[in-house]
Amino acid sequence: xxxxxNHATLADVVxxxxxxxxxxxxxxxxxMKQADLIVLLASAGASNQEIADILGTTAxxxxxxxxxxxxxxxAI
Length: 76
Description:
This is HTH luxR-type domain-containing protein. InterPro entries: RNA_pol_sigma_r3/r4-like, WH-like_DNA-bd_sf. By secondary structure, the chain is mainly alpha-helical. The chain is built from four helices and no strands. The longest helix is centred in the N-terminal third of the chain and has 22 residues. It is elongated and about 60 Å long.
């Protein structure tokens, strides 16, 4: 019995990963505050610009949220 092998290209994998990331962010947005998402993404190593792109905001907004979080004594 012959098996069909699906040869995904790197571009296909990247497209699928981007879609998965957008779906995960949409799910998290519905259950978390933006400030908490910013802290989560920052703690995962995302840059301010990457976080802004993911959340549909600006890098200065992300920076301000992180500054406020640090002033409150929360770890990032």
